[in-house]
Design a protein that fits this description.
The chain is an alpha/beta fold and 382 residues long. It contains 13 helices and 13 strands. The chain has a 6-stranded mixed β-sheet. A 4-stranded parallel β-sheet has the order 8-7-6-9, sandwiched between helices. A 3-stranded antiparallel β-sheet has the order 2-1-3. Strand 4 and strand 5 form a beta hairpin. Helix 3 packs parallel to helix 4. The longest helix has 15 residues. The termini are far apart. The relative contact order is 0.13. Bound molecules: pyridoxal-5'-phosphate.
């Protein structure tokens, strides 16, 4: 398939200035601020049904005009698995687990990487840079390997070596930066003056991959929206993607309402939850958490996260380390080997119990347990 790229465009969130989709930019040339991407998504349902079960079946909705540019590692339609959870106040709660842990790199980040790195191939970029201490870096490194695009992945000096194996093994150039996570982001940001920033937070193409989460869930429910969706949230790359996806389906007339988006943070690091509750005073320094995938002290798209939750009629909740460990243990003993970060969503479901409405309730299982066997062993004492 080939469509003209000119009905899509990039748009500066602050000034409204528009840029062509193929401009090699990742932030607004006007303000230096965040860019969004506009793409008129279409859903030819009868054709979609006949296509292979990968996220590329939503072909018309993805901002990669030419098939020749697609970089794919398979991107399966991930299962929506029924699960019953005992709740904190007694009783049981039925859930549908969206097993995004089954992507090639072991996390849903592959949705974003597939679309972003396809775009990078389209732009014929000689090299890209990304910063991440975990799953985003692993996913970008694997898709770059597939595309044959060299990449630099910046990580904090303190990043656990286990999480970096995928990055190294894929042949990416690993750059270790002394200091905090923010120091690493600054170093990548400096490098991005010369090299295209394939950032999962800044680059709007990433979110137009994660949006396929919403498409899949609706198709799996017979092209109907779920009642509520529970999503572990740090930078909000799945939360915002889901919001874009449900909006696309609403705008195209495929669904008639948007589900409640319930974002989950840890008590250890909860800037979005604090902003949601409009808490005054200084933000406390983050404390250690086993849900390291969402320990983001300064999410750059926080305003967008809050907008998505508010506009969907959702909420932002926090869970404690004890709740996360309990949810993780219950999940693994039920045969679900998931990342501790993903267990936050199950902890939230147990906490909310029957206060989550309407049904059905979908829980994003964002990462595979094999990502963090050491953390799981320590947390569960196994
Ligand atoms: C990246 C990630 C998240 C959340 O992503 P944010 O973009 O920071 O909101 C949740 N779970 C896992 C396993 C992740 O890798």
């Amino acid at each position: 398939m080939s469509t003209t790229a000119d009905h899509g465009f990039l748009i500066c969130r602050d000034s409204g200035e528009r840029y062509p989709l193929d401009a090699p930019i990742w932030r607004s040339p006007a303000t230096g601020g965040l860019l969004d991407l506009h793409w008129p998504a279409a859903f030819p349902i009868d054709e979609i049904r006949r296509r292979p079960p990968t996220l590329w079946r939503y072909r018309e909705a993805l901002p990669v005009p030419d098939d020749a540019d697609i970089v794919s590692l398979g991107e399966p339609i991930t299962p929506l698995l029924p699960h019953t959870l005992p709740t904190a106040r007694g009783g049981e709660r039925s859930l549908l687990l969206k097993l995004d842990s089954l992507h090639a790199s072991g996390s849903y980040k592959d949705r974003g990487s597939a679309v972003l790195i396809s775009h990078c191939k389209r732009l014929r970029l000689p090299r890209v840079v990304e910063d991440s201490s975990g799953n985003a870096g692993a996913s970008i490194a694997m898709y770059c390997a597939r595309a044959g695009i060299p990449c630099d992945i910046y990580v904090p000096q303190s990043a656990s070596p286990g999480k970096l194996v995928q990055v190294r093994a894929a042949g990416a150039n690993l750059v270790r930066v002394p200091g905090s996570r923010e120091d690493t982001a600054r170093a990548a940001w400096d490098a991005a003056r010369e090299i295209y920033y394939a950032s999962h937070c800044w680059n709007p193409f990433f979110f137009h991959g994660t949006k396929t989460f919403a498409y899949e869930v609706c198709e799996q429910l017979g092209w109907k929206p779920p009642g509520s969706v529970i999503i572990p949230t740090g930078n909000g790359t799945l939360l915002i993607g889901a919001w874009i996806g449900f909006r696309d389906l609403l705008d195209a007339g495929v669904i008639d309402r948007i589900p409640r988006l319930i974002a989950v943070q840890t008590e250890a690091c909860a800037p979005l939850a604090r902003a949601w509750r409009t808490e005054a005073g200084e933000t406390p320094a983050p404390t250690p958490t086993i849900a390291e995938g969402i320990a983001i002290a300064q999410p750059i798209r926080s305003a967008q996260c809050l907008e998505a939750v508010r506009a969907s009629g959702g909420t932002i909740v926090t869970v404690s380390e004890q709740q996360i460990t309990a949810a993780l243990g219950a999940a693994t003993r039920a045969g679900l080997f998931i990342e501790p970060t993903s267990a936050t969503a199950l902890a939230a479901a147990a906490q909310l119990g029957h206060d989550i409405a309407p049904e059905p309730v979908v829980v994003a299982i964002t990462g595979h347990g094999l990502k963090a066997p050491g953390t799981i062993a320590d947390a569960l004492g196994v």
